[in-house]
Amino acid sequence: MNRMAFKHRPLPDPPRVNAGLPSQDVIDLASIIGALRRNRWLIVACIVVSGLIAVQVLRTSKPVYFSNVEILLDTRQERIVGVEQIVSDLNVSNSTVAGEVAVLQSNLLLGRVVDQLDLVTNPAFDPYLVEEPGPIARLVDAAKIQLAQIGLLEKVPEPMPDAAADPAGSLSAQDARNLVIWQLRRNLSIFQSGISYVITVSMSAHDPELAARIANAVADQYIEDQLAGKLLATQRAIDWLDNRLVELEGALRTAEDAVVEFRALQIRDQGGNVQGVAQQLSQLNAAVVDARNERAAAEARLTQAQRLLNENGPEAAAAALNTPRLTSLDTEMADLERRRAQLATRMGAQHPDMLALELALDDLRRDRVAAIDTGIKELDASLAQAKARQSAISDDIRSTLQRQLDLSRTSVRLSQLERSASATRQVYESFLNRFQETTQQLEFQRPDARIITEAQPPLSPARPRKKLIIVVALFLGGILGVATCFVKEALDRSIRQPKQLERITGVKVLASLPKLPAPGPLRNLLHRKRRKQDALIYDEGLRMLRYALTNPASRRPPKVVMLTGADWNVGCSVTAQGLAGVLSAIGQDVVIVESNFRHPKQAEIWGVENTDTTLNSYLTGDADLAQVFARHVEKRIWIVTAAQTAGNAADLLSGDRFRTLIEGLSAQFDTVILDAPPAMGVADTTILADVADAVIVVARSGRTRGDAVVSAIQLIGASGAPVAGTVLTDVEIGRKTLPLTTSQPSTVKQTAFVERLTDA
To answer: Does the predicted TM-score (pTM) go above 0.85?
Structure first.
């Protein structure tokens, strides 16, 4: 049979299909929020489970208390006297602080703490209860070792010491002590506080009192160890200095005796020493200079006197001699010359007095000549004496020089002995002074560190941090829930949004219908308001579907509209009911033909009961067309019901009687809506599509897979039926979302379908 005469609208082009490829769009914020809202109970379950696990772990965990001691490496030096110490003060630097941290962690110091507090017998450190670290602990220790090797961790975990028990199961005292020290080191944390010179000793234990006692004991033992080390070093220095002083004293006495003996021998054999001979030689040199000067002066006087005597006579020589005798004679001659001059004025030359004076003057002149001759002889004698003295001094000098040479040869040995004695004396005095200083230091020693904060028993445990663990557990549970949600969404191939459906199928989405919540209690006004708002949005989506089918741009709207889906329970029957409602709102007479013989729902939806004469009776020939009537359910809405059948549904629809029925209904009503079964898996839909002017494929958000919708559209398109578009039901729409409208204004009046939804 040819196509029906009332189909005047041209068939649309075959739908453009994208082969069902998944969406390549970037996930937007709305999609993420929608995914979280859909899986909110999964996220809540993960959070609750994580919280319960954390609570259970906290209930089974023993509390751990931390007690801290702070030790300051003192850089200030106390100087009571300016005496250098045997053990110098610490030159504090980061390397020094690291070394002191290592000292605090040493097994020697911790062993003394174990002995002091008798931790071997303490139940908290029972060596018989020590267990070998498990696999997780070993993995953690291995990770810490790797971190320490690259410098991200300072403390390296120490492996458990080997402790072999005897056949009776008991440990030796040393093995038990080693196990206790190992436990103590694992529970002890020692580190530098920031960039300061403060070392923090932190002890963890299940008993707060024990943690404080151990932390204080470690700090006290460290201070005592410093003092004991200094005292021991000082005492060793004193003992060594004492023994050395005894040896030096004997060596000094021997050296000094050797010097004294050599000096005595030198004085006895050579008549003096180098210093005495040198002084004598200096005096002789001065004496020979004086003698040489005296000789030169005597020679000069003698030469001058002889020259004057030879050239000018005795009178001239007398001026050069200037002896006391000549001086006395000159004085007497001058007195006589004055007396003669005085007498000459009163007496004549022949006067006896004058003559007596002349005789006296002649005697003086003869005496003067004799005195001059004597003076020259004295000068000659003085010259000879000066020469003899100079010669004697020169001889003495030569003799003294020889003695000095002999003494110099023997003084080399004396100098060696004196230097040896002097060096020994200096060493002895230095050691003696150091011995006295060190002896005084023994009575005053101070450590290089001091405790600035004493450990106190903590009032609350540091681990486990209950609030933090619970918060972290809840946070991780939320992260796990969100991750599970995203994984679930990534594995979910169902369609969620209209754009996704349109992108996958290449067919226009005619309407998006939200999911309507189930009716709530009448007293819940908020629920009733929400339901009413969703119903309004639903009704607006139906109007968009109506507008797409009755678009004025088309030459003629379709008379027969078939609604089908890619799977069961996608909402075809409810959508057909809603479409009939919005079509009747604009004055059209609409009939819904129940074409789903496998699962008919229209009678149930409209609340009517099937009669004995249904569509099945007409198609099987048990009733004629006049007996199959459309039942009026609402204003301008009629339905044709069908009974459920499964085996021969395709056979019933493929006959001419069904086509005749549709032709008759098309002539009587404005629009005929076929509620068809899914296109996949049954042949009914392909047969029904042959009588439809437009086919609408319905998909359900969150349930229908994209490839199923594509396959359904391909199947319908292969039969030549026109696919007008798709409808997506159960779409999640936010509370503030407004329905997308077209150019057609929405009517203010609600349809009867919406009124029924809101009154429910």
So the answer is: no
